[in-house]
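ARCHIVE CARD
Drawer: 12
Card no.: 0347
Subject: one protein chain, sequence and derived structure
Cross-reference: see card 0346
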Amino acid sequence: MYQYHKLTPKQKAELVQERIKKGYPPHSPPHPIPDQEYYILTGTCYQHQKRINSSDRRQQILNQLFELLINEGIEIRAWVVLPNHYHLLTTTVNFQWLSSQLRLIHGRLARQWNLEDNQKGKVWHSYSDRAIRSERHYHTTINYIHYNPVKHNYVNSPYDWKESSVHWYLEEKGREWLRSCWVEYPVRDYGKGWDD
C-alpha cells in the first residue's frame, strides 16, 4: 500500500494499467465490496510520517471523524488513532460521500498542522477500506484495532493508549469480555503489512 512512491516510473505505469484493467480507479481506493454491513476504514499520513504526533491532534481528528459519521447515522464500533494513521470499524458507508468528506477533514487539518509545524507539503496519503466478511472477521478486527498501539511499539498494553475504543469496551463490556474476545478471535498475522 505504501510502496508506490518507491516504484520506478515504468512500474508505476504498469500498476496503474493493472488497476484500470480491473475496473479500479487509477489511484484512489477501489472499494471492491460494496454494501457490506461493516468496514474497517484506515486513514494514513503521507509516507507514514508522524503528523498526528500529539494527544491533542489525535483527539482532534477523532472528534471530527465521530461528528462526521454519527451525523450521517454511521456507527463507529471500534477506533484507534496513532501518530501516523487511524483505524475505524464502522457500519456501512457511501464511499463517494465518504471520500469527499475525508478530503475536507484531511485538507483542513493538513493546513492547520502545516502552519503549526511551520512545514509545507502533503500530510495525508488517503484512506482505504476493507469489508468485514464474517463474525470472526468482525471480532478479530476489534482486537486488531485495540492491539495496534502495541503492534507499533507505542505502549506495552492496549489499555495504555488513550485514543482507542478499548476503554469504551472496558467500561461497557468489562475486562473479562475483552479477554475472552482476545482468546477466541486472536489477531495472529491479521493486517500484516497494511500499516508498516
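Annotation on reverse: The chain has a mean pLDDT of 87. The first strand starts at residue 38 and ends at 45.
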